[in-house]
User: Which sequence fits this backbone?
């Protein structure tokens, strides 16, 4: 109840609001620690590892404004803009009974597969930037490479998903995809994910029986 409407009153609250929120939080901190009543509220927060109520509601207000209300905030509050924040989907990508089969997504190490068209995906994040890539092999020859540079705030999970998404849009042929990131691998089989890219990927894998995904421990 306390977080209701935070995007209106807690984006940049005055000092009086901060003090009021600390006053509300203080009795609970004292009860949890059993400390003397004269102990400073900030000390109780540090001891318990609980952020101040003001900071928690301030974060909730910014997330709500950017993700749900699509409102651009001043640079003094955040450097993020609505277009840079990933928005979740509502509902499932498919009924659980329609999830990809074990033949399409397998936990078996596919490093021993050397025939047919094979695609190896990868992602990296260093101080120089974030990138996604895949490499297409036919037999023993490399026939295609794809590289993409993402923004510094993108995660490895997002870059791996981007590479997988582009792989599923390749021309219609029987292909084997090998990934070294188990998180993205498992996401492709998760019909309940709210991630937009995951849902698009899951639909592609389910609709295209020509695609098989394996883990590759050698990367």
Assistant:
């Amino acid at each position: 109840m306390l977080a209701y409407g935070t995007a209106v009153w807690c984006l940049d609250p005055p000092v009086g609001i901060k003090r009021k929120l600390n006053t509300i939080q203080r009795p609970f901190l004292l009860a949890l620690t059993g400390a003397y009543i004269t102990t400073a509220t900030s000390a109780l927060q540090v001891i318990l590892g609980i952020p101040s109520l003001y900071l928690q509601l301030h974060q909730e207000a910014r997330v709500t404004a950017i993700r749900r209300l699509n409102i651009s905030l001043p640079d003094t509050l955040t450097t993020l803009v609505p277009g840079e924040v990933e928005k979740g989907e509502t509902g499932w990508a498919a009924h659980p009974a329609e999830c990809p089969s074990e033949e399409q997504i397998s936990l078996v190490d596919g490093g021993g597969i050397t025939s047919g068209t094979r695609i190896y995906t990868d992602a990296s994040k260093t101080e120089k930037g974030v990138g996604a890539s895949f490499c297409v092999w036919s037999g023993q020859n490399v026939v295609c490479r794809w590289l993409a540079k993402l923004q510094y705030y993108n995660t490895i999970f997002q870059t791996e998903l981007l590479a997988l998404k582009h792989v599923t849009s390749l021309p219609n042929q029987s292909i084997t995809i090998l990934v070294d990131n188990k998180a993205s691998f498992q996401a492709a089989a998760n019909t309940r994910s709210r991630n937009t890219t995951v849902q698009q990927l899951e639909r592609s894998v389910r609709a295209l029986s020509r695609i098989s995904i394996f883990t590759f421990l050698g990367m």
